[in-house]
């Protein structure tokens, strides 16, 4: 038995938020942009493969999964860095 669509959506949103938090934390620790992008790419690729494989057949499913994962992981990483910069400013002001 499969969970309801709303439950699946909540799980996906929660995982995306968790990945974004991890990217922000790792950026705060000084990890480079590429390392964080690779970190976000893995779960994004797994999600998109799981999304497209049941619906599509052939190599198109893999290509769409790969392109979608690149876009999703890029968005998560690009969003994570400005958040990290804001936290750096806040923590810098509190330490002073």
TrEMBL record:
The chain crosses the membrane at residues 6-25, 37-56, 62-83. The keyword Transmembrane applies. Keywords: Membrane, Plasmid, Transmembrane, Transmembrane helix. The keyword Transmembrane applies. It comes from the Archaea. This is Uncharacterized protein. It comes from Natrinema versiforme. The lineage of its organism: Archaea, Methanobacteriati, Methanobacteriota, Stenosarchaea group, Halobacteria.
């Amino acid at each position: 038995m499969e969970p309801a669509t709303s439950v699946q959506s909540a799980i996906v949103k929660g995982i995306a938020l968790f990945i974004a938090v991890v990217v922000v934390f790792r950026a705060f620790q000084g990890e480079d942009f590429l390392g964080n992008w690779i970190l976000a790419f893995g779960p994004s690729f797994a999600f998109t493969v799981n999304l497209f494989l049941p619906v599509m057949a052939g190599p198109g499913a893999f290509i769409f999964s790969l392109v979608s994962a690149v876009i999703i992981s890029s968005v998560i990483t690009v969003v994570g860095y400005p958040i990290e910069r804001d936290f750096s400013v806040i923590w810098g002001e509190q330490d002073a």
